[in-house]
Amino acid sequence: MILTDDDRRMLDGAEGPAVAAAMDLLTRYAEALDAERLCSVRNVAGTATQPSPLKARLVAEGGWDRAFSVINLDSDETHEIPPMAVPTCQLQQGFGADAAAVAPYPAQFVELQADAETFYGRRGVSILATCTPYQVGNLPVRGEHCAWMESSAVVYANSVLGARTNCEGTASTGAASLTGRVPCWGNHHDEHRRGTHLVRVDTPVGGFLDWGLLGYFTGDVVQEARPVVTGDLALPDLTDLKHFGAAAASSGGVEMYHVPGVTPEAPTVEAAFGGGGAVPADAVVYGAAERAATYARLNDQGTSAGVDFVLLGCPHASLDQIRDVARLLDGRRLHDGTSLWIMAPRALAAVAERSGYTATIEAAGAKVLTDSCPAMSRLAPPGTRVFATDSAKQAHYLPAILGIEAWFGTTEDCVRAAVTGRWSGELR
Amino acid sequence: MTATVGTVLSGRTVVPGVVTGEALVSPETISGWGGIDPATGTIVEARHALQGVCFTGKILVFPGAKGSSGWSAFFQSTRLLGTAPLGMVFTVTTTKAALGAVVTRVPALADLDADPVQVLRTGDRIRLDATAGTVELLARAGEGT
Lengths: 428, 145
Prior knowledge:
Largest interface: A-B, 32 and 31 residues
Order of helices and strands of chain A: HHEEHEHEEHHEEHEHHEHEHEHHEHEHEH
Structural class of chain B: alpha/beta
Helix content of chain B: 10-25%
Helix content of chain A: 40-55%
Strand content of chain B: 25-35%
Number of strands of chain A: 14
Distance between the termini of chain B: 21 Å
Number of helices of chain B: 3
Shape of chain B: globular
Oligomer: heterodimer
Radius of gyration of chain A: 22 Å
Low-confidence stretches of chain B: none
Shape of chain A: globular
Distance between the termini of chain A: 55 Å
Strand content of chain A: 5-15%
Number of strands of chain B: 12
Strand order of the largest sheet of chain B: 1-12-11-3-7-9-10-2
């Protein structure tokens, strides 16, 4: 593998032992991938603050320097952690103090996380505390090489923003934050960004539910390949594309997709496949039957009509989603024994509060919660057996993670379930 | 594919090192976050073919990694908690599996000349020489050493 003079200096310790450990990890990782070199990056999104029993043990042994050295740099030694070399943000983490009244989350984890935020904030980590950094100001430019983790953020960065990142991990993002380097492999190269499958949509797709269904179908079909989606599509907004990508990264491992005429690397179908007439002759067809089958699959984890819990905002809700929920809840009350949480970035929750949406939501008995989600914190309201969601991703993951039944539908179906305590959604 | 004792597959070194042990072959891709319990070294994903099976001390043979980018951190945790597999042999290279093998720090091999998931069986005794880029079948499951 080729190391530049600057790479070599860092590896040899010119920037201190923590940076040398970071370069050592990146070198081992690049060799594991058979990458030829490293890319320079100036935008890192990773996780360092979220609590776990292992992290609590490491912090007790040697503070956050030890936790970051061992977990985020894969080092055996404890190094003093310097300021981040390049802009770095914290992704979603555990529940914070604002959830203390509604979620039975361990108080010592809330304290550990607050302590972590202080440590990393002083070293230049922006505590965005969201799986959607692109919704709250972290927007790489087109073509920019990045080191991001979180599957839904990675697919958004590549596909919608035209930035370039692989699905990185806790250690590679930690090492990238101290070096400004990551292996130049996979999605960093043009030839790995071109479409592999043509998906032809023969039934109208428009709106949040339908983009989620199409994403869940597409991910299942292409797995980790790169779909090019064309056909009967209404112009999607940020929220639709966020849902499409997150769903495709749940049923499959999609890290890059193209919607010709919408996403930046696909002005045309031909361009999405790299030009030169490489468009596949056969298309995967998504019609009314496929739409119905996908809806049925997302609802095969629910048998009980009674709904204890409604979860909205996965990935974290946009301001539009919060406003929609406030409008749907205006003047209504949640059913006794049914909870409704909207998960949002804290920055957007502040705007929602200022705009009066939160007051309307809370008047109905629902909550806007920040920083985390039930999947990350492994927590739903006590006693939850059946939940409903408008997120294909949460419908996919939560039954396995929490052992609860799931219903999937529109935001309106979910709010109705919260108000009546009954699931009455159906595909329209 | 039929494989006899002495069969050698060749591949690309992901993490160098040599180990000899029992293969645990997963017919399906594996999730890290949400799919394994690092405290016990056990696959916990609902409906997974190996749900409830412990990989600690086994050479894990699997098609590849799926799911969350927490994959590598969960396998790193198995090393820190003493529940790691002995080695890894996988079919498809992704950033998750490659970084996961690196931070688990076990010998690992990928991009083999035949699909290891098809050739090897759970219980086979194998020698993984990830430095040389080979995996050798020493004894078939249930046929002694």
